[in-house]
Each structure stands twice: as C-alpha cells, then as structure tokens.
Amino acid sequence: MVMQRHHLTRAGIAFALYLHHLVSAIEVPLDSNIQSELPQPPTITKQSVKDYIVDPRDNIFIECEAKGNPVPTFSWTRNGKFFNVAKDPKVSMRRRSGTLVIDFHSGGRPEDYEGEYQCFARNDYGTALSSKIHLQVSKSPLWPKEKVDVIEVDEGAPLSLQCNPPPGLPSPVIFWMSSSMEPIHQDKRVSQGQNGDLYFSNVMLQDAQTDYSCNARFHFTHTIQQKNPYTLKVKTSKCHADTFCLFFPLLLISARGITETTPSFMYPYGTSSSQMVLRGVDLLLECIASGVPAPDIMWYKKGGELPAGKTKLENFNKALRISNVSEEDSGEYFCLASNKMGSIRHTISVRVKAAPYWLDEPQNLILAPGEDGRLVCRANGNPKPAIQWLVNGEPIEASPPNPSREVSGDTIVFRDTQIGSSAVYQCNASNEHGYLLANAFVSVLDVPPRILAPRNQLIKVIQNNRTRLDCPFFGSPIPTLRWFKNGQGNTLDGGNYKAHENGSLEMTMARKEDQGIYTCVATNILGKAEAQVRLEVKDPTRIVRGPEDQVMMRGSMLRLHCRVKHDPTLKLTVTWLKDDAPLYIGNRMKKEDDGLKIYGVAERDQGDYTCVASTELDKDSAKAYLTVLAVPANRLRDLPKERPDEPRDLELTDLAERSVRLTWIPGDDNNSPITDYLVQFEEDRFQPGIWHNHSRYPGSVNSAVLRLSPYVNYQFRVIAVNEVGSSVPSVPSERYQTNGARPEINPTGVQGAGTQKNNMEITWTPLNATQAYGPNLRYIVRWRRRDPRGSWYNETVKTPRHVVWNTPIYVPYEIKVQAENDFGRAPEPDTVIGYSGEDYPKAAPTDVRIRVLNSTAVALTWTRVHLDTIQGQLKEYRAYFWRDSSLLKNLWVSKKRQYVSFPGDRNRGIVSRLFPYSNYKLEMVVTNGRGDGPRSEVKEFPTPEGVPSSPRYLRIRQPNLESINLEWDHPEHPNGVLTGYNLKYQASTTTCLSSPVNGSKTGRTLVENFSPNQTRFTLQRTDPISRYRFFLSARTQVGEGKTIMEESPALLNEGMWSSNCFWLCCGVGGGDGTCMSRKVQVRESVATTLPATTAASTTTATERAPAATTKQELATNGSSIWDIRAMANSNWANITWSHNYSAGTDFVVKYITSNKTEKSIPVKAQTPSSVQLANLTPGMMYKLWVFPIWSSPSEHSYITFTTSSAYTKNHVDIATQGWFIGLMCAIALLVLILLIVCFIKRSRGGKYPVRDNKDEHLNPEDKNVEDGSFDYSDEDNKPLPNSQTSLDGTIKQQESDDSLVDYGEGGEGQFNEDGSFIGQYTVKKDKEETEGNESSEATSPVNAIYSLA
C-alpha cells in the first residue's frame, strides 16, 4: 500500500517507474477513540477452514466474523445461490456476527446441508467476502460382507492380503490384528503397505499359526470396524526318506522346498512409475519386494543426494517420506531391493506442482482526497495462477466505471481519489490445484486535524541539556505542523530549534531564555488544531566541595565533605556509596547536610567513598579513597594473631511483644581487635536445628535490642569476628516465645505464566518462618481476566503454586495472592498481571527480501507479522538457512540447516558466515515462548565468489640431491572458480665457515604460478645443501587465499655438518696455529647457541648485524641481569644473558620495533639463559628488555639491535658457496696426507718395526700387543680389518665414536719435529694409548685418515 502526494505526468515514463515513485499511505493511530470515529469498510477477521468436515452428531457452526464502521451486516450463499437463513428454522445467525448455527436437536439430517458456503459482510463503504467453505459430513460406512476362503500358499512364496476398507470421510486408519485382538508382528519380511494391504516377502510355517483381520478406525465416530479374518494354510515339502534326512541334514531346507530367490517388487509393479505431489505437503514413496531371504530396501535420488533434513525412512526402510516438499525435490528417485541372491530396482519419477501461494498479498489502503495509491496482488504456483479482481464481491469488469482506477494485471492503480471511492477489493488467485482469496479495502478519509498529546503538558529540563517537545497529530489530508513560542508569530525551526515530521520540536541546548509556553498548530484544508507545552529550565545539580582522599589512624574520627548546589525547586537526595555499593549508615556513622562523619575508624572502613547528589532530572557524584593505618608494627610485630574466643553468658532482658534485649560478655580477641558481632537465631517449628542470621553489630558493643516476629520460638547465639576470622558460636540463650498475629505482608514474586496453551500457572515466593505470624499458614489466590467487568475467581492453597485450566491463548489476567493464618488475613495484596499459556504463532513473515552484502553475508528485510497472530510474547524472528549446492559442479556440500536469531519486533537483520560461491535457501519464522510459527516462502540466493581456503596439504619429497618434488591437493573450500596456484619459496644455505644457525644465508623469494589443474611441481636445486621454505596458496578471480607453509627436510645432520666443515677447513690451514681456536669457537656455538665473532664467521656470505650488549641495574634484592647479547640476522636474532637469580626463575623478553610494535616472550627457567626471536623484519631497529616474570622492566635498561637487510641476490659465484669450499679443503687435505706418507717411506726405508712376525696382518682388536709397527709394503695396501671400501676405492671407517667433544678434552697435544699440531687429529683411543706409553713418537698419519673417514 503506497501513495503519492504529487501528480506525475505519464508522458515518457514507464508504468513500472511510476509505481516505484509512489509513497506510503496514511497510517491511522492505534487510539481506540480515533478508530471508533473513523469510517472503515468491512474486514473479515475470522472464518471456517475451506475444507470443513463436521461430526454428524453435533450441531454445525460455520464461522464468519468481521469488523468495520458502521458495524457490518452479513449474508450467505450456498452453492453459488443466496441462502435465506430466515426460511429454515434449524438455521440461525449469531447476533452482531455472521456465524451460522445449524441445530439438529429437534431432528434433521446433517447431510442435507452439505455444500459450498460463502459469507458476505457489508456496510456503507463496501463488501468483504470469506473464502468458499466446502462443508462435508463425516462418514463411517460399514464393511461390506464377504466370504473369505482359506488361502493356501507355498512356503517361501510371496503373499499379499488385501484390506479394501470402506471409503470414509476422512479416510480411516488401518491396522492388522488377529481375531483374538493380538497385533500382527511386523518386520522387514511382514509389513503393512500404505494402501492398507499386508505384504509377506516370503511365507514361513509359523505364519499359519494365527489368522489375519484388517481393522479400520474412523476419526469422528471413534469406531473400529473389523473385516472377516484371513486363514492361511502353508504348504511345505517333507522328507520321504528318513535315511536321506539323517545323513544330509544340511540339505533339509532344500528338501522342504524353500529355495533362495532373487528379489521382485510386489508394489509398485514394473521397473518405473510416476507420482505427482503438491508443494508444501509430505511426499511418501513406497517399495515392497519379495524374495528369500527377505530383501533390504535402500533409497537414492538420481543425480544427487536425498533432501537433507527433511527425509525419513519408515516401515523398515520400505517407505521414504519427504516432508514439506518444494520444487527442488522433483526428480527421479529409485529404490534398490537386494539380498544375497541379487538385486532389483524401481524408478519413481516425482513431479511437484503447487497450489497458489502469496508473494505479495494486497493490504488495506487509506488515502486522503486527491492522493494516489495502488493495490498489489502477486501469487505464484505451478501452473502459474490466474489473477481475478473483484470489487465488493462482483467482478471488477462488471462494476460501475471509476475514472480514478486503472487495472493492470496484478496491480490496481488509484489516481486523484475522491470521497465516495471507498470499496473492498478482492483478489482471487487460482489454478487447477486450488485458489487464494484476499480482501483489501480502499478507504478515502476526510478528517480535520487532531492533536493526540495531552493538553497543557509540563516539561522540565536541566540547563544546557538537549530536550524535545512532543506533539503527535493526525488528519487527512496529512496536516502541516508549526511551533510558536509565547504566542509570537514566527515559526520555530532553525538555530537552536529543529522541527521533526512527527511533530516533535527538538532543542539542542536548553537555555534559561528558552523557558515559556510553546504552541503546536496542525493545519490542513479542513481546519486546524493546537496544543500548548510549558517548558521550565532548571539549574544543574553540582557538588561544589566533595570528599578528599584521606589517611586516618585506626580509632580516629573521619569527616568526608559533600556540599551541593542545586535548583531550589527540585527535591535533592544525597546518598553515600562505599566501594560502589550503598553504604549502611550504622551507629558509628552520622550523615550530615554537607558531609559524613565516621567515629572509631576501623580497617574495614578502608575503601572508596562516593557522594551522590541527585534530583528527579539529574545527578552529580564525587569520590575519595580512605586509607586506614593500623597500630604501629613495632607494638604488634611479635604477638601472634588468632581468631577470637566465643562470647559467653548470653542473657535476655526487656522482654516485649516484638523485641528483646540480648546481652553477652565478649571473649578474648587474641591480639586482633573484634570488628563485628553476628547474632543468629533458631526456631523449632518450621526449620528446627537450622540457624539463621538475625543482625550484625559493631565490635565495640556487647548488648543489642533485637526485633522479633510473632509466633516464633526464638533461641539466640553470638559469633565474634576479627580480621583473622570468626569465633566458634556461643552457647545458645534460653528460648523466648512470641505471640501469634495475622500476617503483615503478602507473598512476593507473584507471577502468572502458562505451561500449556490452555492453562496459567500462578507461583509466588512463600513466607518464611518469621513472616508466617501464626499457625496454619495458607494463601488465597484470586484471578480474573483483565477486564474491570470480569468476575474474580479464588482458591485457597497451602503450596506456593496454583494452576488455572481452560484459559484462552495468551490472555492477560489480574492476579492477587493473599496470606492468611488462624489469626486473620494479611492486608489487601497488590494486583499483578500474568498471562495464560502461549500457542504456536499462526502467521509467517512475508515479503522476505535478500540483499547480498559480500561473499559471506546477506542483509534480510521482511514484513512483520500482525501481533494478533503471534499468540504469545514475541521473542524473535528466526531465519533458517542451508547451503543447497555449490556453484561449482560436482562439489559436495553439507545441507545442514542453521538459523540466525533477530530478537524483538524488528524487520531487518544480517546473516553472516556463509560459504562463498554457493546456492543458499532461506525461510523465516516468528518465535514466541512456545516455539516456531509456520515457515515463510523459501527464498533462494547465490553468494558471490570469495578467496579460497588453503590447499589441503603440501607434501615435499627429495628423491635425490638435484631436485625436490612438491605435491598438493585442491583447497577444501574453493569458494569460487580456481584460476591457479601461487608458489613462493626461499633457499637457505649453511656455509662451511659458519655455524648452522647464524651462518645461514636466505636467498630472495621466487614466485611460480600454476594452472588450476596442476598439483605437482619439481624444483631443480642449485646446490645439494640448501634448505627451502615453500608458501603455497590458491587463487580465484577475487584474490589469493590462505597460505600453507612447509620446509624441505635437511639432507645432513646440521651438527655433524658443522663438525665435518671444521675439520675440512682446518686441514688446509692447520699449520698456522688458528685451527684450535676455531674448533673451540665452533664447539661453543653448538653448545650454547651463542655466535662467536671469529675470522671464519666473517667470511660467510650472509650479512649479520653486530652483537649488542649491556649490563642491567641491580634489583632490590641484590640480584641482577648482565651481559645481554643480541646477535641478529635478517629475520631472527639470538638473545643471551647472564644473571644471579635463584634457580627456577622464569624471565620475559620484551622487544619493540621502531614503529612501536610491541611483543613479549616468556622464557622458562633454563641454563644457559637464551631465546631466539623469529619472524623479525629485515633492516629494522629493535629495543629489547630482559627481566624476571614477576617484575617489570626498567625504563633505561634496554639494549638496541638492528636486523640486517634482506638479500635480493639469489644466484652467487660458485667460489663463494660453502659446499665448494669444503670440497676443495678435502681434496687439499688428501693430497697433503699422501705427500707425508711418501716422505716417511722414503726416509725410513718403507718399514716400521711393528712386531716380530711381520707377515701377520694388523688387527686393531689385538690388545695384547703393547708396541709394534706395520709394513708399508705393497701388500699392505689392502683394506684394513673392520674397514670398508667405497665405490671409488677410498677407505672409510665403518663406525666411529669420534666427536668434537673428544678433540677438545684430554691432556696437552703432541707436536711433530717441525712444531706442527698433529695429535689433535687422532681418535680418542689412539690418544689414550699414546699418552699411556708416553711415546715421543708422532702419531701415524694413517690414523688421521680414520678420523676423516
């Protein structure tokens, strides 16, 4: 329903564009007085269902209710002709209603009144129609008599017993029983079909042990009719030769004639069938098969999965039920029947048609004279429904011509409407499967302006605050509203004033000069109306002197100031808070006009104190903190503190009707002053033996007057409290009995709520023992409908609960619960509003519109349901959605239903976390306390493409030293059409002359792009020792998705690589005296991860930032951290430090970049103290702190370091590569060894005196030989024992225990005649033998070969 106030020319403007520019129609206020005065065409509010089946034993009621002004009159048609109610004495019409009542108490046949009825509601402004009501009388015909013969069937053969029940209205419920009323057991072999027949997949001998009778139960008459029972005779083959049965027991089944058979279908017949179903109903597909053994049934849908969330298998998988069928459920379904002998299938082609359903249901239209509007009636169905317009119940083509009305298919456009154009329009949408009928009236109103606000309003506002003056109004045409001040002629709008279209006048900042009387005037062509609003501007409330922070000694007097200035015409209230909770003003405190005094300050008084000064319009507050100092520590330092002793000698005095004085003697405080006394009581009637808190008193008193309740037998005890804890309770006092009285209060927490749709449960909090005031406590419960004319109902109960039954759905009730005992009743209770039970909502949200926001979110709008249809308290609107399919072919998706809640009465929301590039379906419901209402029309929408998820995996394999193979899988969620993959990778090389950690060099990042179908890639390595880091991501047209990262595995152990690199390098320059220092530095680097600045490390090709060190200040306990070192590379740094904190101390390493990005890393206790920082930015300067985890860093105790720049060169000269340098070192060392061997042979004649028997081969395991030599003859060139020959003929040691640690320990090394250091090259065992023999002879060079093998 929309309207337009300006006339538009149609020349050159499309009709659809014209409709788009129409604006909203007039909204009538909900004020009942206004609605009762305005003319209104009829509206149907209640009617019977279209297919109306009635019980023939009852009177017939055909409902038709309508509203309008004037009150409508009613008439009926039957079978398309006028139905004269007055002529039939059995038929009457309810007063002020159109409901027909057909009375059969005086006789008559209900069948005579079957037919099609339609109700007409008329008044001066139009005629509204009900739907056509098809009235039918329920029928339960008798079973036709028939003779049933005995059925003979072979064992193992299939069988179906037909039921053929008599046709009833509605159809009866069928079930099978024996003649003795025992239910027939059903399973996958024996089951009942949907047509009522009983099917046997194969007959067995035990099936003949009972008979079979079909029973029909009719709904309205509640009768059961039984068909004559079937009797079965099962024929079976028997063994004719006992010897055969005795010696061949395994062939007994075959001898009896039961042969295993393949399945065949008993229903439906053939290999295919078809079925038509209407949208929104349940589809039931059935397949029943025979066979031995009984076949299993499975269901499938051709070309896809069975509809998720709406399918259910029934009748032992023989039936497939699809609930709430929609168009996408059409297609071919097939059932597969199988047993061990074979399988067979049947295809069912399902076609989904649809009766008409609303897309846009026409709504009532209220216009002013001269305004434009339109009625829209859009429906859908299969086949497409035809739209027919009627006006006042007659076809619009036959109605009198109306020049202001134009009909265009499903839309009626009104232009320049005038008084007298009011009418009721009907839209009929129909196809072969049904019809829809909707009424919508067009009412042209001519109403003078009316002011809806109360007269002479008074608005108070604080100076300089924003305020708003309201003046709601109504009229037709819509009036123009203007504001005036103090009767002046200038309109108020602009500057400090802003006038809103709804009639409100807003002031951005109220000033003193804005006080006065404001007049709002509403004007249209029919007249004007006005109202006055008086505005008063008040001074703000301000605390001119508030409390201040103070430090007080325990036991002193404290004064907190709170002086307030406020508007004298407003009532001022000053309250105090302690620690943001209301302060209890006890006998130690005194509240004054300008402050608060506290006498005898104690430790418990420490905290925040807030003074709050408030009026009805504003408030101000001020806060201060009180610190309480205890007794000086030197007086109590050596005295142990404990809980106080219990009070003693309790005494009751000043006995009165409602009070008593309790006195006690305090116990010892045990060096901690008593701060409180807690008084508890126990009574012996309601809860004997249970103690309750009565009151609390300061620790400075030992006597108190206790308030008492009637009809309680009291007993008291006292507990003392100090800062350590509470004492044990004192010995109880003597008992004191108070007299009874009528209750003085009523139960609290009274509420009424329905637990079912036809009841209301009234509950309350019962009175306790000190509130009962007398014996036989009970409660008088009263309730009535929220109507002053209604009568009260009452019930007296003793439990705190009462249930009222047979209540209407969600109706407000007035409830009262009054306490009563034997002494009388409590005062009259307050009235509480409760509600009866809720029922499910009757209507679904309409006009659901979906707007795609991005690839994972959509915005929803909908038309809210009418409040009358909610049948309860509106909780939320709920959108159910599910992913129906992916826009990518052959991609399986989960169709699990999800929902998003939109609390409250709203008409828009956002659904997020959707999968991109998918087809979604969505439907809306409204929810109350009972549950969901009916579902709206299913909406479909696609989501656009997004970025993909990461590939499922990335696998790296190294088949040899020259290449790396990569293999990956497609992303789990493509989220669109994949356009390819991006692979980024970096090489990291460890050189021989540097450590594995700090000596690595990272090359630049290389990028490879692949097609979407490629999932393999082979990388040719530039060298055999580099490690690679790979980053792989998929991409769509939208962009690049998430990345998966993997590293190639190391080819060699990094520690062994460092050791071998050291020996190779030292073999070249062993005579310069630097090898030992290099070796020690390498060992230190491996052991502590601290980089050493050596000549070797400076030759690496990887640039590294210099180390930064500092010494930290001493801590308060004398411990300190010093020698903080940071050795940084381009993207990581090693941090080490020294300290003398206790063992087990955890530390925190905190670092900040130059662009203020801060990170902290906790470091567990370890020795040595170190940590590596990863993922640093190349070329960035960092500040770094190291401090214990329980402290904070000092502002000036940081160090700075800068990471090296990133490298851009990936290809370098081979002469600078570590592996090449190592290879050259090894070759040079081998040449040097060969030269030494030749020199020794030449100088010593080629032999060393090793042993007497020189023909015996050297055996390294011969430990009995203490000394000897071996020959350097040609035959000794054979491989030594326990050694193995490589493919190139070099000798390698099979197994070695040698390590860097062995070389760095032991005594002084031995030197040759030329002073060169050779002893370090020997293995540990040779070293020990040499030292044990104290030989001055140089170690044999052959041992060096062993150490290098």
From TrEMBL:
Domain Ig-like: 42-138, 144-231, 263-351, 356-443, 449-538, 540-627
Keywords assigned by UniProt, alphabetized: Cell adhesion, Cell membrane, Disulfide bond, Glycoprotein, Immunoglobulin domain, Membrane, Repeat, Signal, Transmembrane, Transmembrane helix
Entries under Pfam families matching the protein: Bravo_FIGEY, fn3, I-set, Ig_3
Annotated region (Disordered), positions in chain: 729-751, 931-950, 1093-1112, 1249-1349
Ranges of biased composition (kind: Low complexity): 1093-1110
Listed InterPro entries: FN3_dom, FN3_sf, Ig-like_dom, Ig-like_dom_sf, Ig-like_fold, Ig_I-set, Ig_sub, Ig_sub2
Compartments (UniProt record): Cell membrane
Keyword Glycoprotein: yes
SUPFAM superfamilies assigned to the protein according to its UniProt record, in alphabetical order: Fibronectin type III (SSF49265), Immunoglobulin (SSF48726)
Signal peptide: 1-25
Biased composition, class Polar residues, residue ranges: 1280-1293
Record GO cellular component, one term: axon
Protein topology in the membrane: Single-pass type I membrane protein
Domain Fibronectin type-III: 646-741, 746-839, 844-946, 950-1055
Segments crossing the lipid bilayer: 1219-1240
Homology family: Belongs to the immunoglobulin superfamily. L1/neurofascin/NgCAM family.
Protein name: Neurofascin
